[in-house]
Amino acid sequence: MLAFAQSCPALVLNADYRPLSYFPLSLWGWQDAVKAAFLDRVDIVSEYDTKVHSPSFEMRLPSVVALRRYVTPARRPAFTRFNVFLRDRFECVYCGDGSELTFDHLIPRSLGGRTTWENVVTACSTCNLTKGGRLAKEAGMIPSQHPVVPSVTQLHRNGRSFPPNFLHDSWRDFLYWDTELEP
Questions:
Q1: 177 by DSSP, 3-state: which?
Q2: Which helix (H) or strand (E) is 28 found in, with range?
Q3: Any residues with CB less than 8 A from the CB of 148 and at least 6 apart, and which?
Q4: For residues 9 and 48, what is the distance between their CA atoms, to the nearest angstrom?
């Protein structure tokens, strides 16, 4: 039973019943969800059939919890490798391949280029090596899109095309992906 409990994450919702984050999906391990429930920091919205117990107490594991206090979402997304890949939809901006993804600086760092939203794009390792320390135009490579600072909404919209591998049925009412949720 304990081994199964390890695979029972809880979806964490903000006080407005929206996920704290889609990318990565806001999940807590069952221990953190149970602790937060005991500390009255969350309301349990839905539960798994699996139970945990001590000698004097038993409870079903939470599958969805909602924070009691609203957490204000970030206005601008953090500049991270994952968010750059998400902005560019996990595809190389030069050839469209989705494997062996890396960062590419449009203006190479060796030429004074900075690591910013406007200068970094997603590139497969082959295209990145081909371009090397040159400008894309010099290498005969044209990016399919001009890099911009994405909004949180844009990242959420892009991310809905890439649902996580595990989606519990009790999360259905709180997540909005185009694909069918697995039971």
A1: coil
A2: strand 27-28
A3: 87, 117, 118
A4: 10
What is the spatial distance between Cα 47 and Cα 63, in angstroms, rounded to a whole number?
A: 5
Residue 74: CB partners within 8 Å, gap ≥ 6? Answer: 152
Q: What is the pTM of this model?
A: 0.68
Alpha carbons within 13 A on the beta-carbon side of 178? 7
Tokens of 147: 């890099």
- Mean pLDDT in order along the chain per 10 residues (183 residues): 66 93 85 96 96 91 97 89 94 96 95 96 97 94 94 84 78 67 38
Closest CA to 121 of 97, 141, 91: 91
Please tell me the predicted confidence (pLDDT) of residue 125.
97
Residue 104 CA to its chain's centroid (Å): 21
Half-sphere exposure of 93 (CA within 13 A, CB side): 26
107-to-15, 32, 101, 118 alpha-carbon distances in Å: 43, 44, 18, 10
